[in-house]
Amino acid sequence: MAEISNDIRLAVDSGETAIGLKSVINSIKDGSAKLIIMASKNKKENASDITHIAGLAGIKMINFEGNPAELGAVCGKPFSVSTLSIIEPGNSNILKSDY
After folding, report:
1. DSSP 58
2. Which superfamily does 2-88 belong to?
3. Are 50 and 21 in contact (CB under 8 A)?
């Protein structure tokens, strides 16, 4: 989990991401999302909505093994992050990695 955490943080710090359910759904709809990362302990309806929409759009999803508070901490945010999308990875190799 440490390696993916580093890649997520690097993408948030050096690239472009969308954080939160509405922003992630918008990034999927407008075609800018390249990867979706979702906290494993998430609201069931939110998880199924994002999974369905990402599947229709053909966007890969990564399940972050942690709760939204832990994902928020990895992103360097002082709040919980249930899901985020990678729009531009910046200096991160997250789009090239196999998680």
Report:
1. T
2. Ribosomal protein L30/S12 (3.30.1330.30)
3. yes
